[in-house]
Design brief:
Number of helices: 1
CATH superfamily: LURP1-related
Radius of gyration: 15 Å
Shape: globular
Strand content: over 45%
CATH topology: Porin
Largest sheet: 12 strands, antiparallel, barrel
Helix content: 10-25%
CATH class: Mainly Beta
Number of domains: 1
Strand order of the largest sheet: 1-2-3-4-5-6-7-8-9-10-11-12
């Protein structure tokens, strides 16, 4: 089990995320780039500035859908589902299909695979932006980076589905 903390800066052009490990070391960062009406979020490894994933929003949809790519390979897509009193998403990925459930106010979100919890996300609202405590129940590096990318995709689905980009 590993914990990460994702801090989102609001005082920037586009969203910006900084991802810290349990020892408060910044290990990843992500920046949103708005190109006309399209939105891309690029996730980098902090140590070597290596691009790990790119998230792109699919346009002209009633419910938000995002695609996650590594280089040019499609790794996953996340789609918001219609649900009452809670948030629901479906994830199709090269690792399998995931179920994501969250409460009405998006304070607690769980990512499940075959009814087994893989990630727990707890949101903390701060004056300078949002923060997430992310508990990952899997220690493989590739899975950790994938799950952190999913958290950023969920944040975008929940909070960026209105306004300029829709």
């Amino acid at each position: 089990m590993q914990k990460f903390y994702i801090l989102q800066k609001f005082i920037s052009f586009g969203d910006e995320y900084h991802i810290y490990d349990e020892n408060e070391n910044e290990v990843y960062y992500a920046k949103e780039k708005i190109i006309s009406i399209a939105v891309k979020v690029k996730i980098f490894r902090n140590i070597d500035d290596e691009l790990i994933y790119t998230i792109k929003k699919k346009l002209l949809r009633i419910l938000p859908k995002y695609v996650l790519k590594r280089k040019r390979e499609k790794i996953a897509s996340i789609k918001k589902r219609l649900a009452f009193f809670k948030h629901r998403f479906s994830v199709r990925s090269k690792f399998g299909d995931f179920k994501i459930d969250g409460d009405l106010y998006s304070r607690n979100i769980n990512i499940m695979f075959n009814e087994e919890p893989k990630v727990k996300i707890t949101k903390v609202v701060m004056p300078f932006g949002d923060a997430y405590e992310v508990t990952i129940f899997n220690d493989e590096k590739e899975n950790i980076e994938f799950y952190l990318a999913l958290v950023i995709m969920i944040d975008n689905c929940l909070y960026n589905s209105k306004g300029l980009i829709d």
